[in-house]
């Protein structure tokens, strides 16, 4: 076990750099901050590359040493520096970045799927992945020009749901085409005259739901590929719902037959 | 019209202080930032006490001058200072703080109501008020020790919904008692053996839904007062849903008969 006390140490600098998308891609690793996420990773059989803890946390949990050969004892100051958390729990782990660039295969074309089209806010993306997990969805595909799914804020909002379902980045147009080959409905979420109330949607065991960008909604290209558009009837004077709230309402309607 | 260019001007200092709960209470005023909120206030007949704009915005909308005698032209720097927004739209208004300390009356005991029990996050509180508006609820009552409903972050998340429904602070125990006198169901949201699936709830035109604190859920006292507890069946491995997402799923189920 190595003890690190300075934020200028090269290991510490590298962990800090994992906050950037570029360095995560270069190294193929990302950081999990806190007990909940580290435990979720361990329980899911994810390889722990490096374990980072304060002296108290490492002493209180001697079993952690068996997880990896690379254990680092750090100060609270170092922990704060690498996690960007005001009161970190004193435990973190570096784990492999999954290969998210998945091309759909037949095995994937089953179950409920959530497609995110250029959703910008990391909290929204993370919350929707967490909600998809709770709704029993099989997976989430995030389009290019969305918030990066392994950024610290998305990781925090997902609360470990990346270990429970399939999480990919990809070309949604291609995914939609493949879902169509198995006759699975693709539900868009743009309000237009042909849209039908979400209460009337009765999908089977395989379908996809597309949520669009916070300000602009879904792209026209994707919209032209949907089999139906769903809307949530608004009763008050509010003009719209938060995208993560809308996604929750829709997913817990569509999951009835999953 | 007065022109203000310094953040040390007394007016500017006072507007900045409206970001604190204490000063909002002292003065009985709060600040609306941006076109959407200012327009919502005007359309709702809310009195504009002071109008604050950059020279471009005031020049582009000469009709604004008729709204109030107190119009202030400020620099973009001043606007940024008072709104805490990186790229403010250049328009803001000071409006009266409604008297939110409402004791329930017979008129209020009608429609769908959302009760928030010590919800801490301003974004969650604001999003739930906005969702209640979209769901056609009559009002929202926020308990003491919740996020302040007129703080800048709550105002931003509400997106003007405070002008569309009744929004009060109050003693939820008292509100519940009064709803019981008209035999309206009070739905709690704590998972326990007696809880029933939200899909089986069929309220009439008057009911209340209680959402609890993000970490601790509802208080035991309120829980003992509910007529039923609702839960959202989780299908995946996620342990919980974001409180604002849960509230959205529940409100758009309960509003079917509103």
Automatic annotation (TrEMBL), chains A, B:
Keyword Methyltransferase applies: yes
Domain RNA 2-O ribose methyltransferase substrate binding: 31-101
BP GO annotations: methylation; RNA processing
CDD domains: SpoU-like_rRNA-MTase
Cross-referenced Pfam families: MRM3-like_sub_bind, SpoU_methylase
GO cellular component, one term: cytoplasm
InterPro entries registered for this protein in UniProt: Alpha/beta_knot_MTases, MRM3-like_sub_bind, Ribosomal_eL30-like_sf, rRNA_Methyltransferase, SpoU_MeTrfase, SpoU_subst-bd, tRNA_m1G_MTases_N
Keyword Hydrolase recorded: no
Transmembrane segments: none
GO terms for MF: RNA binding; RNA methyltransferase activity
Superkingdom classification of source: Bacteria
SUPFAM superfamilies: alpha/beta knot, L30e-like
Key words of the record: Methyltransferase, Transferase
PANTHER family for this protein: RRNA METHYLTRANSFERASE 3, RRNA METHYLTRANSFERASE 3, MITOCHONDRIAL
Family under the similarity heading: Belongs to the class IV-like SAM-binding methyltransferase superfamily. RNA methyltransferase TrmH family.
Protein name: RNA methyltransferase
Organism: Limosilactobacillus vaginalis
